[in-house]
Amino acid sequence: MRLFLSILIFAVLAGCASGSALVTGNTRPAIEDHTSIRILTEMPQGAEEIARVKASSDAGWTQQASLDYAVEELKKQAAKVGSNAVVLSGRETSSQTVGVPAYGGGTIITSSEVEIVEGVAIWVD
């Protein structure tokens, strides 16, 4: 049982966010520091659209932590295409249920909330 719990805790801690980018404009050189990417709620005047980005995470211990991981992944996706900002266009929370085989037989059923965020990766002068 102790080994199972260790593996389960490792799986939760090692869990990460996933994301994608659909290029819709001209990419720029990648931004090395994704933490510099700004999150906006409105499209600034004169902004250049680079890509549509999306990210999701269920890796946090809380719903807020999962959202934070998803936003960090959104920034990473935007940085890869050379964006310096992301205009948020949507957020969704969905539930997922997973069955994990238990030591000695049976299944442990667990559920988690998946945070999904999406936006438009842009370049703003």
Q: Can you describe this structure?
A:
This protein has 125 residues and is an alpha+beta fold. The protein has one domain (2-123): Translation Initiation Factor IF3 (2-Layer Sandwich). It is 25% helix and 42% strand. The protein is built from two helices and five strands; from the N terminus they run αβββαββ. The chain has a five-stranded mixed β-sheet, covered by helices on one side. A hairpin with a 5-residue loop joins strand 4 and strand 5. Mean pLDDT is 84; it is low at 1-14.
| First-to-last CA distance | 56 Å
The ordered H/E elements are: HEEEHEE
Beta strand %: 35-45%
Number of strands: 5
Structural class: alpha+beta
CATH superfamily: Hypothetical protein apc22750. Chain B
What does the largest sheet look like?
5 strands, mixed
CATH class annotation = Alpha Beta
Could you tell me the mean pLDDT? 84
Task: Report the principal-axis shape.
Answer: elongated
Order of strands in the sheet with the most strands? Answer: 1-3-5-4-2
Low-confidence stretches: 1-14
CATH topology: Translation Initiation Factor IF3
Count of DSSP-assigned helices: 2
CATH architect. name = 2-Layer Sandwich
The domain count comes to 1
Residues in helices, as a percent range: 10-25%
Q: Rg to the nearest angstrom?
A: 18 Å
Compact description:
With 125 residues, this protein is of the alpha+beta class. The chain has helices at residues 2-14, 63-80, and strands spanning 18-23, 38-40, 48-57, 85-101, 107-123.
